[in-house]
Amino acid sequence: EYFRRRYGFSPSCRVVAAAGDNPCSAAGMLMREDADLCISLGTSDTAFMLSSTATPRADVGSIYRNPLKRLSYMPMVVYTNGSLTRESARDYDGNARSWNEFEDLVKSVPKGNNGVVGFYLPRPEIAPETNGNVSRYFNESGNSVEDSDLSLGTRCRAALEMRALAVRYHTTCLGMSKPARIVATGGGSSSPSMIQILADVLQCPVYVSPTVNSAGLGAAYRAFHAVQCEAAEKGFVDFSASISSKKDIESERVLKASPDSDSKTIYDNLYRNYIRCENLVRDDQQG
């Protein structure tokens, strides 16, 4: 009655349980359970997956219900230090640069950043939880590296590798399985270096979704699915099977990066060091 009076909806219009923008984006991108990891790279960064299992970790992220399937989950990690932080790393010395120059700086340092792991978090962060103004770097032994000893290229690569390593670690903490592929969205997905680092750190291909407004499309899909479920004898039908345009969306996804097998050992070692150093940052913030 409220929607009919307030917005002029038809009295026969069905109203179903709502969902937020990220769950609806999962629907709009037709994500596969335990296979697709969506990473949105914008002002804030977000990583989520439709998952058959979940491990609650309040210090890492949130667990939602899968909006598309019964008895399933959607773990999600959100990072406040996104594109603005990468921009800050790019212009760290006070000189404004283009993103092409940023790409050149990242490429000037080898994969794995010569063993350097960075935590450049000028804004209060969620995972790991910090109060802001964190700028700490560690060598491969876990010892602190002085800011003055870092090149600008090292800082820029650290900003990208930090995000990929954090996603790998925190999604694992929340019980997500190793993804079969990554679907990247947001402005940061246009960075060739960021996309390749994601592919190398998580060792899976990275695709870019052509859907501009995946949340709006997903909300429409969910409404259509609700009508189909209402009409079904058993009261529920498979979401993916109910969306006839699935193959069209799949064919439009663009492969942007494939993992370099030679980088696996490099990033496995850096990943272990990242976990150790994140714990040091957490302890320092809590102390």
UniProtKB/TrEMBL annotation:
What is the originating organism of this protein?
Rhodosorus marinus
Q: Name one GO cellular component term.
A: cytosol
Name this protein carries in UniProt: Carbohydrate kinase FGGY C-terminal domain-containing protein
KW Kinase (keyword) present: yes
Domain Carbohydrate kinase FGGY C-terminal, by residue range, is: 38-226
Family of this protein: Belongs to the FGGY kinase family.
Cross-referenced Gene3D superfamilies, in alphabetical order? 3.30.420.40
Classify the source by domain of life. Eukaryota
Please give the Gene Ontology molecular function terms for this protein: D-xylulokinase activity
PANTHER family assigned to the protein according to its UniProt record, in alphabetical order? SUGAR KINASE, XYLULOSE KINASE
Q: Would I find Transferase among this entry's keywords?
A: yes
Q: Name one GO biological process term.
A: xylulose metabolic process
- Enumerate the Pfam families for this protein: FGGY_C
What UniProt keywords apply to this chain's record, in alphabetical order? Kinase, Transferase
